[in-house]
Amino acid sequence: MQQHPHGPGSPVPVQTRNERFASAAHDDFPAVTGRELEWKLTPVEKIRDLIDGELDGSAFPAEVSSAPGVTVEWVAMDDARVGSAGLAEERAAANAWSSAQQALTVTLTSEEAVAVTIDRAGADRAPRAAHTVITAAPNARGIVVIDNRGSARLTENVEIVAGAGSDLTVVSLQEWDAESVHLSSQFARVDKDARLKHVVVSLGGAIVRVKPSVHLAGSAADGQLLGLYFADSGQHLEQRVYVHHIAPQTISRVTYKGALNGAGARTVWVGDVLIGRDATGTDSYEQNRNLVLSDGTRADSIPNLEIETGDIAGAGHASATGRFDDEQLFYLRSRGIDEQEARRLVVLGFLLEVVQKIGAPELEQRLIAAIETELDAVAVV
Amino acid sequence: MATLEIRDLHVSIETDQGSKEILRGVNLTINSGETHAIMGPNGSGKSTLAYTIAGHPRYTVDSGSITLDGADVLAMSIDERARAGLFLAMQYPVEIPGVTVSNFLRTAKTALDGEAPALRSWIKDLRGSMEALRMDSSFAERNVNEGFSGGEKKRHEIVQLELLKPSIAVLDETDSGLDVDALKIVSEGVNRVKENTGLGVLLITHYTRILRYITPDFVHVFVDGRVAEEGGPELAERLENEGYDRYLTGSTVG
Asked: Bridge partners of A200?
């Protein structure tokens, strides 16, 4: 990997999102101080082992369901598929990349829609690395759910390739136990006329940091990025989204919604959208909304939009963090619904707006039940 | 038979300039089956009365009483008032993302009755009411008021009135923003509910137009936070011809 002139150690600050240094090698990145833009909102002292420590790079336990036209293989890290969608942009991701001994590859080839689940019921508490490559062949259709439960201390890279004309949904579902730590860099490349729906759902885990980077590489590529998170007391749930419009007529929609409840509940959302020089006629919109349910929480919400071409169809962003809308509660209560139930309805409705867009009924039902469980813990204020 | 009694009601709101009195001694009695029109110029306190009856936290009752069949309404929470039989059709119904009309109505019905409605008859009632108010059945699966036009929101309020079966309803400027066709549909809905349930109605309006379709038994003219004149339907006709000017000498229209 050739070091980029604006890479680490260079006195010139990185001005544009896609000029960020990338490498598969841990040593290529300087030590993390916690003051970097990349890390300053993350409790780095609690994840030093994943950023710098030795990682178990053996296959992370996973069971992959079978479906017609789906190939599942563990491959060596020098396989051509590894690195096809991106490369680590920070030290924890690079640590995972250089530590992983093999990659789990899931390849969809069927033009009939298929559903695949990568069932990860967790492992021990030893720090681990993982690498996964999800590929939709040209014109393939399907949904892949990475279902994370149990316990883990995991830093990983997930690569996603949506081949030309494909229609792929990838859901990364974090329902880890209360002590788990999970850092996941997810890189996607969306080719010509392909459609990728990428969904992050983070409900469980002590520290969960998911970073989807979606590169709309082919003309008319379409990226729908959805996210949903619910932070309870002491939880740190972070999502860093990056959409890079590379090709003309590309479309992106980013919708992330979060709820925070309990002292020390902490969420971070950073949404970078870059519309490149050649990305003419693109249409993008990103939004993040957070609903604060109690005192003592903190939600950071930082949208960034960079446009390098004068010819775009639309670009916008929105960010809002607030408490309950009193008028919504009044309306529901004026119909006889008691305060607790009214609050449940409002929060559930707020988050359901994202769930309703996933387009997988069984998963949607499961998520509604999981959110309802979270809401049981919310006290009437 | 239900009776809503309002006695010497004084209500204020907090503003940046301090507390401001809006209602200055309102007296009204509404019985089941009766329709009372409250008419008045903008700023006379009509909507304040509506929201105070429903228990909106923005309004502070300084003195006076509201009782429903003798029970102290002011001591009740917002939802307790609804469960006691009061209903407010709002001027500006709010949107509730992610909550479908069907889920909302079923939840409200369950809360009011203390048990979930029998599924088959409930679906029949819901369809029937929506059909009568010319709302396409697809509205049931849409989120509450989200993307509804002004007229659709008002019709949705009357669907709720019909299904939730209150004993006394306050209709806050239900006619505003409606074209003639929608006004007729909404008025027919209100009349149907009155006929079927013996509903008592407090109809708040600025204009006499809706009174051509919903005939009031009593008309109360509201000026500057209190009832300035009371009469029968003929008073509405007089207001139609003369406007509110004769009540406003010495004060300004807000």
From this structure: A172, A227
Q: Which single residue is written with the structure tokens 């939709």?
A: A136
Could you tell me if B93 lies within 8 Å of chain A, comparing CB atoms?
A: yes
Tokens representing residue B134 in the block:
């010319």
Contacts A338 to B, Cβ<8 Å: 77, 79, 111
Structure-token match 């919903």, residue found: B214
CA angle at residue B54 from B53 to B56, to 5 degrees?
105
ipTM for the whole complex: 0.95
State the angle between helix axes of B119-132 and B180-197 in degrees (0 to 180), rounded to the nearest 10. Answer: 140
Query: Using one digit for the tens of pLDDT, what is the confidence trace for B2-27?
Result: 999 999 999 999 999 999 999 999 99
User: Contact at 8 Å (CB) between A248 and A222?
Assistant: no
Which positions ≥6 away from A176 have C-beta within 8 Å? A122, A148, A149, A150, A151, A152, A182, A204, A205, A208
**Phi, psi for residue A58 in degrees, rounded to 5:** -75, 165
The answer to whether residue A338 neighbours chain B at the CB level (below 8 Å) is: yes
Which candidate from A328, A338, A351 shows the least CB-CB separation from B96? Answer: A328
d(CA A116, CA A68): 10
The two beta strands, B96-100 and B59-68, are unpaired
CATH of B3-92+160-246, one of 3.30.930.10, 3.40.50.2300, 3.30.2420.10, 3.40.50.300: 3.40.50.300
Sequence letter at residue A24 = A
pLDDT in tens, A309-347: 889 999 999 999 999 889 999 999 999 999 989 999 999
The helix/strand/coil state of A98 is helix
CB of A367 less than 8 A from some CB of B: no
Q: Which of B78, B88, B94 sits opposite A328 (nearest CB)?
A: B94
